[in-house]
Please model this.
Amino acid sequence: MTEIASARPRAIFPALQKLYVPFDTLAETLLRLTAGLLLITHGYGKIINPFGAVGMVEGLGFYPGVFWSPLLAATEFFGGILVAIGLFTRPAAFAAMIVLLVTVYFHGIAQAEGLGGAEKSILWAAIFLFFAIRGSNSQSVDAKLGKQI
Model:
């Protein structure tokens, strides 16, 4: 039995344990890959026009916008790449989580959309918090290099 499987409580349906264990790493890898690829997609427009969000970031109180707008673009686009491939996963996920927490504030409070407007950002922030704490798994560049930051 693997170390991961032995550290887990017994399954309610023990017959399904044979299914859970082999797919454990795959499910985590798919979550990391999906979150990273979606963040890349979200940041693509910003990386093409890195100063396009100057007004938005200044509207949130982040001055000067000419500094924060390209930083936002780089965090989303390049951070998404790093999370997707699992390289420097913890710092990239932490930076993405901070960006998502700002969007929680933006949608939930500044735009007065409440939970309905912020729920997607809350979910994204929670996913990136998971990877900021957990890091990547054996299916990552970090693991292939034998390093975890």
The two ends are 28 Å apart (CA to CA).
